[in-house]
Structure formats: C-alpha cells, structure tokens
Amino acid sequence: MIVEHKTFDLFEKMAFEKAVLVPPVTMPAFMHNEACFFYVLDGKQKSIGATESADLKKNEGVLLKCGNFYSQFYEAGDNGQVEAVAVHFYPEVLKKVYDTGLPQFLKAPKSELPKTSMAVIKGDVMIQKYIESLLFYFENPVLANEELLVLKLKELILLLSKTEYAVQVHDILSTLFSPQTYEFKEIINANIYSDLSVEQLAGLTNRSLSSFKREFKKVFNASPASYLKSKKLEKAAELLLTTDIQISHIAYDCGFADQAHFSKSFKQEFGISPSNYRLNQINNNLN
Known about the structure:
The structure is a single chain. This protein is an alpha+beta fold. The protein folds into 2 domains: about 1-175, Jelly Rolls; about 190-285, Homeodomain-like (Arc Repressor Mutant, subunit A). The protein is built from 11 helices and 10 strands. The strands form 2 sheets. A 6-stranded antiparallel sheet has the order 1-2-9-4-7-10. The protein has a 4-stranded antiparallel sheet with strand order 3-8-5-6, with helices on one face. It is elongated. The N and C termini lie far apart (about 50 Å). The model has no long low-confidence stretch (mean pLDDT about 90).
C-alpha cells in the first residue's frame, strides 16, 4: 500500500519521486525509454530484472538501464514502512539538460554492450548526502524550480561517475538507453527462485501471458506454474538436507513469500512437512 507519493516533473517528465509504502508491495517498472536511479531510505527492497536482481537496504541504491524490472518492497524499516527515492533519466530530458552537448559517457554506445543492466551503489557518503538534499526539496517543494531540478539531475550523474563503482556506472551510462537482449530460457533460469507470478515473468520477457505460456511449454515441455513450483521445491528439499538454514529463510530463498504456503506446497509434493523432512534425514544419519 502506498502511503505517500511526491514527485517533481522536469520538461513534462517525472524526474524525481519519493514514496512511502507499507510492505509487502510488488510494483512493475517497465522502462522502455528511460533509466532510473533507485535509493532506499528505510526498509528493504529487491529490484528484479530479466537476468539479474539486487537486494537493497537502508542507504543503498541501484542504477538501472532501460528494460523490464519489478520492485519488491518486502521488509519495513523501524517505522513500519519502506521509504525510497527514485531519479529518472530520459534521453529527451538529458539532451535539454546538456544543451551544449552530452558528456562523453552519455554519448553513443560502445561497440560491446555491458554484461550488466544494474549497478548497485552501497555505502557511498556522497550519494547519501545528495539524497538528503533532495529530501529537503520534497519538504519544501516551492523551492524546486526548473533551474534547480536541472542542476540536481546533472549533480547525480556527476556523483555516480565519481563513486568507487565508477567503471560499472560508466559502462551502464554509456549504453543507458540501449536495452539488453536476452534469450527466453536465460530469463526463466535466472528467475526460477524469485517469487514473481507467471504474469510478472511474462512481463520480464516482454510477452503477453498467452504467448508466454505457449513459449514456456515449447521450451520446458511443462506449464509455467507446475515447472516453477517443482524446481523451487526441489531446491528447498536440497537445502533442508544439506544446510541448517532456518525453514523460513529457505522458503524465501526458494521464492515463497509466505512460509505457510511453502509448508503446504512442500507437504503436497513430498507427503511430509519441511521440518519432519529434515528431522528424518538427521535420524537416518544417526542410525
């Protein structure tokens, strides 16, 4: 549930936004002609892309290229909510912002596309102070005129290029609006253990639900729901036997947001609860 949402537009595009949410919330971010820097102020969030994902906690951010993503706000902070800020980059806005010419790292893509579509920024004081300055303007919106917003957008791009992640950031910025292409099977295999729905997985592959199901059946010779559930439970069973990880953590790691649902699904598949499944293995080892 969204509790608060504040935005600043620049050249008729939403460039800056701040949101307060009560988790759990999953939101799509299909950025076909934009890129984004996302920063967590409080709580925990997961950005899920076609083949990559990034878990963020307080004072951590991620730079995302254009493409299809989902944002999962899954754990509240001390105030019972998740707070986050996002800054959006549009090619037409950047051309106006840099009216005398784009800086070198925003110009035409290099000959070889980067292997990543996201760059995680952790523990950077410059970025943290920048975000704090944005919060001041969200609290005092009358001060946020066009001239100031132009400066804040350019400031963020400059600061990102000065972080310890500069090489990765430059690699992404140079191909900011060149979407990565992925094979269908590559996307599915990268997201088997996420808790995305079949509809959301279809979105990551840029297909309608019906065409996604047809392609899935063709590639994996099974329906999406049955195949994904089977793979998740196989991994859960393996972790129960080979690790001492808490069952609730195993459920999350295998893509089950709810432990009760995990336990029910596990018993349906193996005829025994997860805890008894692990206990039986311990007893067998002792004997």
